[in-house]
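S1.2 Input.
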Amino acid sequence: MPQDFAARLIAWQRAHGRHGLPWQGADAYRVWLSEIMLQQTQVVTVIPYFERFVASFPNIAALAAASEEQVLAHWSGLGYYARGRNLHKAAQLIMAKHGGEFPRDFEQILELPGIGRSTAAAVCALAYHERRAILDGNVKRVLARYCGIAGWSGNKQVEEKLWQQAEALLPERDVATYTQALMDMGATVCTRSRPKCALCPVQADCVALQTERIAELPAPRPRKAVPEKQATFLLLMHGNDILLEKRPGSGIWGGLWCPPQLEDGLESDYVQRNGMVLSDRTELPVFTHTFTHFKLHITPVLLRMKQKPQRVQQAGSVWLDVEEALRAAIPTPVRKMLEGLI
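S1.3 Output.
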């Protein structure tokens, strides 16, 4: 009963779904931006970032003309920074290959950096009202429960079954409303824990509800031991200025500004190698930052300089006032350390 399923969701979305989000009913640029920001990040977190971003980069041309540093400064705190770098690269590609117009063709959208099948389909459905199926995390959960599809949704065979259902359940029209309904359902009703089944418009024929398998579906990601790593960050200060170094373009925090990081903890070697003369040393409390695949235990060490050493004033490093540093492209743990210095 694909049409009936879609019709119930569309009616529910119009009456109870989320309305007034800043990217709803917007052009392809804003829909694309919102889809990238919403990957791994909740709506309530994304909204202020989205609004600041489009205020500074109101269109693709403005985004393409910006520096990576400016883009990452606006991304600072959102995490998964490759998203911001890919967004910037894609904007430049759109300027070069598509005359600054976001492409309408699904295959051309798929060619852009950082865009996969579901994101490309979401732009086509929400901005261009094309009949395209999406399959983000929320939608996977809704379909796994409604259709009774067992297994972890990251498994290729399970994911293929979910894609088949996503395609089969598509309505002939009102695709944008239907797509928004699926996302809203997963975010507000068919939630991972404590879903509000009594409010669900398709509860009558939801396999998971009828067979009492709501807690089982979808199966969680297979658990693995999370590796734990240690790192020391040197907060090198002269007055209210702090030394930051630009990270390599790839990897964790690629392209962002951080205090010097020591993996081996050989702080004295670093100080001596860079000709630093200290006036004070304070070891600050250790704290932990959790990434998707590992935990990083961070030891911040505050080192106050008698004078700024010349040897570290080179390409890739800069002295900034702490307040200015907080406005730069810095990752969340660095922001936490710097805020502790004010």
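S1.4 Remarks. The chain has two domains: 2-210, 228-339.
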